Fold each of these.
Amino acid sequence: MKITVDRTLCDGNGVCMGLAPDVFDVDDDLVLHIADEIPDDPAIQAQVRQAVSSCPVLALTLEE
């Protein structure tokens, strides 16, 4: 599972962080950070899928 963020689209709104806080973090400057490795946990992976599909600006893509 690999997540890619389009930095030209991402506005740091934090929807992804709210849905998958173990993987996504938005800092004080509204810059999105993604964990280096996605835990091999089905619940967290489901959260990641939901976060990617819920991005309001479509800045995230997921490769399984």
Amino acid sequence: MTRRSLGRGRLIVVGGALVAIIGCVPAWWTVGGTVTQAQSGNAFTFGGYGIAVFLAAIALIIVVVLPYARRAGEAGIDRPLTYGLLLLVALGALALEVVRINGFGGLGLPDRAPGLWLTGLGLLIVAVGLFDIAGERPTQR
């Protein structure tokens, strides 16, 4: 039994997913603060789509790790299509959350919403990794 190496694309996907997960903790929106008391929320704020971004990032890491957890050393789910679908789910949820946040005026620059921007950067890194995975040659078994 030979195991394939992790590869640059999958390593980039894991790094981007970790950045997106870390970005779920800081504030995604902030309102007030000049006259009224500032209020903020992150990806886990009730009623938001941020939790879907978090779960999709966790799923991306699981898809990368799954072949290494199996005795056969491969998994049928470890395909570029799977990574692409999970990235689309995360990007769609992030877009819906941006629309929701913009609706009540909480969308701001990175100094007022660092988590949202960090999560977006993480998903951009995942997209770069996906393009690298999609360009891989199939392995001979």
Amino acid sequence: MKVFTDEGDYFGTIDEAVLTHTKVFGWKVKADKNSFLSNVLGSAKGVVVPHDLVQSMGDIMIISKAAVPDDNME
């Protein structure tokens, strides 16, 4: 499933769900080539987006822009 931010940026694709005992904790999102996520992360392969930041799911997933890693991570 493709993932977009609430501002319309292509973020990446769902790699897998991260589950706890009774619910979905988050989603592993893979940084595809030329995605917004790959531009922010550089060589990292992806991130885990907490399920709380998912705004909508259907044919695509829409996540809050708050899920975007800070490009000043050091």
Amino acid sequence: MVPYNIASYALLTEILAKICNMIPGDFIHTFGDSHIYDNHMDQVKEILTRDPEKYSLPKLKIDWGTSYVDNINKDIRWLKSFIRISDFELEKYESYPAIKGKLSTGLK
């Protein structure tokens, strides 16, 4: 769930910056309780072999034109009225294949 949350918060940061006509800074995430289960060691070893610089970072393109500013009012429901999935494009996204692991409860 953490990768989804990180992506969601980063997207929200981009959206808010765009609405406020600002440039977003860095999104920094801190793990409070991270752990690795015994049955995930093969997956950990696999991810540690990957070069983080193999792929360049993708670019998020948000295309609202200029009309989105006119839709802003004090009621947050305006977001639903003009944000569409087709407004967003992730350019040059490349990644390693997914690493799957068995769900673990930590119980033996």
